[in-house]
Amino acid sequence: MYPFRVPGYSSPAPGEAAVLTADRDRRKIRKILVANRGEVCLRILVAAKEMGIDVAMAYEEPDSDACFIRFADEAILIGSGPVKDYLDIEKMIWAARRTGADAIHPGYGFLSENPDFAEACEKAGVIFIGPPAVVLRNLINKATTRGLMLRADVPTIPGTQLLSSGERGLHEAVAFGRRYGYPVIVKATESGGGRGVRMIRDEGTLVKHLTRIRARPRQVWLKGAFLEKCIESVKTVSIPILADRYGNVIHLGSRDGSIQRRFQKILEIAPANVPEDTLESLYDAATRIAREVGYVSAGSIEFLVDPETGEYWFVAINRRLQVPHTITEELTAVDIVREQIRIAEGHRLDIRQEDIKLLGKAVQVRINAEDPLNNFRPEAGKKIDLYMPPGGPGIRLDGILYPGYSIPAEYDSLLVKMTVRGYDWEQVVNRLERALDSFLIVGPQTTIPLYRAICDEPDFRQEKIDTAYIQTHPQVFQYPDPGRRIARLESFLMEIYLEEVLPANWAEWL
Amino acid sequence: MSARIVKRRIKKLLIANRGEVALRVLRTATEMGLQVVLVYEKPDREAYYIRTAEEAVLIGDGPIRDYLDIEKIIRVARETGADAVHPGYGFLSENPDFAEACERAGILFVGPPSRVVRDLGNKVLAREIARRAGIPCIPGSCDLPSGEEGIKQAADFAGKCGYPVMIKASAGGGGRGIRKVKSEEELAQQIRRSRVEALKAFKNENVFVEKCIESPRHIEIQVLADEHGNVIHLGSRDCSIQRRHQKMLELAPASLPENVLQKMNDAAVRVTREAGYVNAGTVEFLVDRKTNEFWFMEMNTRLQVEHTVTEELVNVDLVREQIKIAEGKPLDIPEGRIRLWGKAVQVRINAENPMNNFAPQGGKTVHFYLPPGGPGIRLDGVIYEGYRVPTEYDSLLVKLTVRARNWEQTVERLRRALNIFLIVGPETTIPFYRAICRDPDFINETFDTGYIETHPDVFRYPEPSQEIRRLEKDISHVHTSIFFPYVY
Lengths: 510, 488
Known about the structure:
The complex is a heterodimer. Chain A has 16 helices and 21 strands. Chain A is of the alpha+beta class. Among the domains of chain A are: 71 residues, Rossmann fold, CATH 3.40.50.20; 72 residues, ATP-grasp fold, A domain (Dna Ligase, domain 1), CATH 3.30.1490; 151 residues, ATP-grasp fold, B domain (D-amino Acid Aminotransferase, Chain A, domain 1), CATH 3.30.470. In chain A, the strands form 5 sheets. In chain A, strands 9, 10, 11, 12, 13, 14, 15, 19 and 20 form a 9-stranded antiparallel β-sheet that branches. Chain A has a 5-stranded parallel β-sheet with strand order 3-2-1-4-5. In chain A, helix 4 packs antiparallel against helix 5, helix 7 runs antiparallel to helix 8 and helix 12 runs antiparallel to helix 13. The longest helix of chain A has 26 residues. Chain B folds into 3 domains: 99 residues, Rossmann fold (3-Layer(aba) Sandwich); 73 residues, Dna Ligase, domain 1 (2-Layer Sandwich); 254 residues, D-amino Acid Aminotransferase, Chain A, domain 1 (2-Layer Sandwich), CATH 3.30.470.20. Chain B is built from 16 helices and 20 strands. In chain B, strand 1, helix 1 and strand 2 form a beta-alpha-beta unit. The longest helix of chain B is centred in the middle third of the chain and has 19 residues. Chains A and B meet through helix 1, helix 10, strand 19, helix 12 and helix 16 of A and helix 1, strand 18, helix 12 and helix 16 of B.
């Protein structure tokens, strides 16, 4: 059927077919175990609760004071962590059994794209809310994925296969660099979220870097490496998709995730500002790819796009709920987690492609407890003394913080995702500016002033952004200390707090 | 209609209001790059929203009377160099004298021209306008003359159309001055009471009598009109769930057959044109529960408390449109921005005890506040930890607006948002709304203005469940321990 075999790709065997043909396989989910922590737990919780589904959460000891587990119907301690228990497949399956959960939502990060986990769930008879294990396995290897793209006739970035071991691999790398020119990117096959990715500008550094990473003991994500040509000053555009088990695939518009630091997205915009015909070809390519790989559940296909020429290259398939899914939800009014759960239950998609109309423009910023002026050093261990988020039209907040929240040293430092919606880019930036200006978090340093400085930057205001934005606009780091106005607001609220809240509690606690 | 060049540009906006709506206008004005002046009475001096403005002027000891003082506000506008005034809702927002005073002082009034405010403010005149536009009105009398003659005229009218009838204040609004009369015996007394109430609330003792439509639905249409003759509507809102003629929960769009809605939209646009209306306004209708027949009731010449539900559905910032219209700009909302599928609902979370006849919790302090977030949630509030519920003003803490794809999902979302909405300190209306979310009639979207009276069950909610108590305790425990680390 296919012109050539893709190395490493196994077609779904009849027994483990990803595609169902009859509705009889539908199964109502009654209780979901969330195999994750932090903000995404609350996100899954609210979707499940709205569907009348109970929620259990597995947590590690450092999270025992967290508020998200208190909102769950049940919380189960799975170990002292940190991180390792959230990555422990057996423990998660045990937690699902113990709590009587009939489904697991993996969130993002941790086990979300791990085929072994999906397989373990399937074996244990627990529904994995995500793509089938066989699809995850096929896509885990970026080199294999590239082979699949060739077959689906989607342009990919020039790159090597997995580098051979020893001297030969080094030669392959050097030859590639000479043929396509520098810079190149060295990627670990299982890289993601910016980890295991490194840009290299000359041959000497390439040889040094490869030698070094090969000498290092194997890490979870480092099973091999390959090279890609680095295409600079382009946009990273993702096309979010939904696919059910009956072969229906729809896309949900586009997202621009170009503003990154060290390959990690920090601010995302929807829809992407690229010409309409380019978007159309991206939609087409994305749905074709989803069909080609037998994708099921929510995901997104990532491309690099040159907005000038309309040229695009496939980068990756994200096989999970993504951090920036909120901007897509704001524009389309589709609840993506709800759809994931419905698809996992075996329902057909009941949203037609024609129903997907993007209403206006949205942006999401990740507000982290990090000091941007100090190389984004996490502010672990600090406590939130005061929290006063903005509200009003077009503001959505997905966060886990409250006054008294203490930033964990063991995990990432995301505090809250703020999503801002408006009808055009100008209004969105003005609204973002207004929201950031009245966003008070007293305690740790946060990334708020950085975003505030980005709002003032003329290229951003004109939506002229590409993957090199943070490097080429160092001025966004030269923001002044939080202004006097903010300081005044802070001291005002602290005063009120001390006067009004504490005296009453004194009596109670003593 | 050809678009003329912008005539005026607002540079500095004075917000002649307080609380949640002052903050609402402040937010949009900031987004538009306007300078803002707030005015406040002494009891509001500790309000947080005042600190977020660049400029705030104390206008007196209040309470309330300084917010109603036209001269003072005009003077402050002059002194601070404000070239426009936004009246918010309530207070001076529908006072034609205020609009006129602004016009005289050369200050833009962000609202309709004073003449229109005056016409539509008089319910008898408003009905006349609607009749001219060919819109059915509820049969009613003219302003009743005072004394015995008025009572006689009312009795004649009631004799013709049958009891019960409603006595209404001509200058009324917000449910005040409205009385239901079931028989001729109570007529005289109710007219007298209504006059007293009307005089107190609106400084105008004129009342009229109207046929009473039993348990109708209360549906309103949001309209926008510019000075170039463009009038558009932004769909409907159902405000039937009321307590003593005060709206409590509003949703959009109303669940009515498409052709009825279309007729109402059309009627609303016609009334707006006939009145020579400019700016954002709302045309209110009563709709028969069974036949879907509708009658014009009145036109509100201001921003409504429940405007958020419309904004959530159509992605239009109504305050922004108000300001642009006041600047003389033509309406330029493209078709594509108006999406009328999906459903939104707003609940007013007040510091009141529903079990105790909604007794306001003035003077109490909010010790802990953790609002919900995530998809489809919007909050417009003035509350924060340490907030003291004022005894001088109304007790609105925060408006929660919830949006989803259909009614079923909207109710589910409202329920989950209320379930994780934590306000520790005053009693609030949250448990009351939780109870409404469980009521089958509400879930099936069948309700009319008699809903609260006919569903006493919604008051029989249990004490906030153990679950919520546990949550509050757990989280406030973590919270307090940062200030009292040595207690544990």
